Amino acid sequence: MRTLIIFKRIEIWLLFAVMIGLIVFALITPEEIADPAGSEPVVLSHESESMAPEVSVEPERDLIVVEKVNVRPAQKGRIVEVTLLGRTPKGDEVVLDDSTVIATTEGGKPVGFFFEPFRQFGSLAGDENSLATVKLWLEEPTQVVWLEFKGEKLKAELPE
What is the pTM of this model? Predict the structure, then answer.
């Protein structure tokens, strides 16, 4: 009869009530929830294609743009974070490291990458636009950093 003492505790009865409630909820809810992606599209108007406005469609260009530039002062230089938005030209994911990106200053001096242990380099996806951050190390002040990636030259203007 010692095992029946456990049923005198309020916590046990509360646990039973929650479990029964969850079981009832699972049995009452419908088995199949409609997937909005799999349903038919709703037609809002019956305009023909000839009535639709002409939209000029340019051939899709694989374009990479500078989204944001952030500069932080460090001991003997500055850390420059350049955020890029775009996709790779060939449609495959490319890691943005010193083998794929060449960074130079206005005067043509090479700019090195900022080293952080245990941090992976950013990468751009090839199938859709993605954001990637490139961290650079500047020893001397400059106004512009040029990034060359897969034949494209990008201008990153540094804020003052």
Answer: 0.56
